[in-house]
């Protein structure tokens, strides 16, 4: 018997459940598609494009809908000789200034053997280079800036590009900017002139409800899974679970994919509801693990201090117990400790991430309120995560528990 045999019961084409798969149809987003089409109509007419700003939480289809509609737009404009449309995408994660966005745009527009250095130019020079490149491409150019909120308050470029034509910097090209963001605060933080320009057309992507998610999952499952691979209620359970939690299609698809993997690993011929529950727990766990790894240095220190108390069976515990431990661990790790109140903010963050449970308690007659903390996740999970903290010198009790687990 072979060690590996091809799946014949659960996954027909599992790549279709992966993050980077681009669906060829969009379900449950009619109103958004209508608004987006209206915003893009000037492009088909050969007119100056409008700038569009898309916002909504993570996983609600901003990228998928944009890719789908811009592909359609490119195909449909080919029918008109007087429209020459080019679309360029730039992911702005880690680009925290107009300068960096401009340099990366220049390099996106240029060929790979003709890139410019990411530092060393005056800002105006980079903008001029960008205008030259845009004019060289010519026609209508749509620049899609994904995760645009990373640019922060240094947002001049979002004003400059759309205005460059009327300001006489561009002659042969009609540029349009499509900004995408899942940070609701970003729109408010834009300077008024940028807001007026970039947010000419705004499209809000609301979280999906269970009915919409079910439609998305059904369409995807039709091709990704074999016909009898889902037991009754499985798809609606994935949809309902994700709708109640985040309303994200990504979460719903991840749940179905994970549940399928669990069924396959168990040699089952179909996915059961119990696989969805198990998948939810596994995904939650890995999200929490990731949350712990991505904490700041002081978040790591506060976590280790609380873990030390938990291992000594001193939890639930109060800030006044955690703080001295935190301070000692910080000193051993060559970090200046924060004052108690600031460290308490980090404990509150850990509670918000679902790592700690926090309960308010009253101090009896003397009045006053205090909080008690304890882990709301399995300690083994925390010990595993802490093992990877490179910036913290671990106290002996914690180091010992790690060794015991790794043995
Ligand atoms: N309406 C839809 N129809 C079909 N698939 C969808 C739909 N909406 C989202 N998806 C799928 O859900 C996943 C997440 O969607 P997408 O990446 O577009 O979200 P997003 O809003 O851009 O999220 P982020 O802000 O995190 O980038 C993708 O796999 C996408 O194909």
Automatic annotation (TrEMBL):
ATP binds at residues 60-64, 208, 220. CDD domains: Cdc6_C (cd08768). SUPFAM superfamilies: P-loop containing nucleoside triphosphate hydrolases, Winged helix' DNA-binding domain. GO terms for biological process: DNA replication. PANTHER family: CELL DIVISION CONTROL PROTEIN 6-RELATED, ORC1-TYPE DNA REPLICATION PROTEIN. Belongs to the CDC6/cdc18 family. This is ORC1-type DNA replication protein. It comes from Halopenitus salinus.
């Amino acid at each position: 018997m072979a060690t590996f045999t091809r799946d014949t019961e659960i996954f027909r084409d599992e790549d279709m459940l992966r993050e980077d798969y681009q669906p060829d149809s969009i379900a449950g987003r009619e109103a958004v598609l209508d608004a987006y089409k209206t915003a893009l109509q000037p492009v088909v007419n050969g007119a100056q494009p409008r700038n569009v700003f898309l916002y909504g939480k993570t996983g609600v289809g901003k990228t998928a809908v944009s890719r789908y509609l811009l592909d359609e737009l490119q195909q449909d404009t080919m029918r008109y000789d007087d429209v020459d449309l080019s679309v360029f995408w730039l992911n702005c994660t880690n680009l925290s200034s107009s300068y960096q966005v401009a340099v990366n745009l220049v390099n996106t527009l240029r060929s790979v053997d003709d890139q410019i250095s990411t530092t060393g130019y005056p800002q105006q020079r980079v903008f001029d280079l960008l205008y030259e490149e845009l004019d060289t491409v010519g026609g209508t150019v749509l620049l899609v800036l994904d995760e645009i909120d990373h640019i922060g308050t240094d947002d001049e470029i979002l004003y400059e590009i759309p205005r460059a034509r009327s300001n006489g910097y561009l002659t042969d090209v009609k540029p349009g900017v499509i900004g995408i963001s899942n940070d609701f605060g970003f729109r408010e933080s834009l300077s008024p002139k940028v807001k007026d320009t970039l947010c000419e057309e705004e499209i809000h992507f609301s979280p999906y409800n269970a009915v919409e998610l079910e439609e998305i999952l059904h369409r995807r499952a039709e091709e990704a899974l074999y016909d009898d691979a889902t037991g009754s209620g499985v798809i609606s359970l994935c949809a309902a679970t994700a709708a109640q939690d985040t309303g994200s299609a990504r979460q719903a698809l991840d749940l179905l994919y994970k549940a399928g993997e669990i069924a396959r690993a168990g040699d089952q011929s179909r996915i059961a509801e119990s696989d969805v529950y198990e998948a939810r727990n596994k995904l939650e766990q890995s999200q929490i693990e990731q949350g712990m790894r991505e904490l700041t240095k002081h978040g790591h220190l506060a976590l280790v201090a609380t873990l030390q108390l938990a291992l000594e069976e001193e939890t639930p515990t109060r800030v006044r117990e955690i703080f001295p431990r935190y301070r000692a661990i910080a000193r051993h790790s060559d970090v200046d400790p924060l004052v108690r109140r600031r460290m308490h903010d980090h404990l509150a963050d850990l509670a918000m991430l679902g790592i700690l449970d926090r309960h308010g308690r009253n101090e009896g007659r003397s009045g006053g309120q205090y909080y008690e903390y304890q882990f709301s996740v399995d300690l083994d999970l925390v010990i595993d995560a802490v093992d990877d903290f490179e910036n913290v010198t671990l106290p002996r009790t914690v180091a010992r528990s790690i060794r015991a687990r790794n043995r």
